[in-house]
Design goal:
Structural class: mainly beta
Number of helices: 2
Number of strands: 11
Low-confidence stretches: none
Helix content: under 10%
Distance between the termini: 32 Å
Mean pLDDT: 92
Strand content: 35-45%
Number of domains: 1
Order of helices and strands: EEEHEEHEEEEEE
Shape: globular
Radius of gyration: 14 Å
């Protein structure tokens, strides 16, 4: 049975197929060899793993896959907080909701930003 995952972006990928790749925006010490689509089973986990600004519009997509890797802390240091998982096959994205960032609560853990995003769901 395929599990539902969430993927966030500043672009709307509704109905499009995304292919695994090495992320452009990754931590300096994050894995740079495994091609993947970074997802989480929670929207807040997705947001915690990304960087957005106040008033940014974010597209939250859902997708399904059974070809998923759970990265180690060595591969992704913030994975215990984000619940980040890697889909390693092409997947079709479905727009779930569109949100607007309304507040950013700045936090840090061992020099890693752990910002919490407050948001409102757009109509």
């Amino acid at each position: 049975m395929k599990t539902i995952y969430y993927f966030v972006s500043d672009k709307n990928f509704d109905g499009q197929i995304l292919y695994p790749r090495i992320p452009y925006n990754r931590m300096d010490n994050e894995d740079d060899e495994i091609e993947r689509i970074c997802v989480s089973q929670s929207i807040d986990g997705c947001l915690l793993a990304t960087y957005y600004g106040l008033t940014d519009i974010v597209y939250v997509h859902s997708c399904e896959s059974d070809k998923v890797i759970s990265p180690t802390i060595k591969q992704v240091p913030d994975t215990p907080f984000t619940g980040e998982q890697w889909i390693i096959e092409p997947v079709k994205m479905k727009l779930f909701i569109t949100i607007k960032i309304t507040q950013i609560i700045k936090r840090e853990f061992h020099n890693m930003p752990m910002d919490i995003y407050c948001y409102k769901i757009m109509e």
